[in-house]
Amino acid sequence: MPEFDWRSPDSYKSLQNADITDIAWECLRRNADYRRDYQAMIANSPDGEVTPEFRRRWGICFRA
Known about the structure:
Layout: H1 20-29, H2 32-44, H3 52-58
């Protein structure tokens, strides 16, 4: 996940036309606990799949 400077207006330009899903993702990806859990999940997942526990904890669902 790329780093960002929350104080820089340039960090928010991509959100000018964002929908609610985009805003939710921005909040989630900036959450230190989420980032820690994501790194731990990836390190422990041999196939790189998102686990059901991770989805439940973070309220993530992917549309098919």
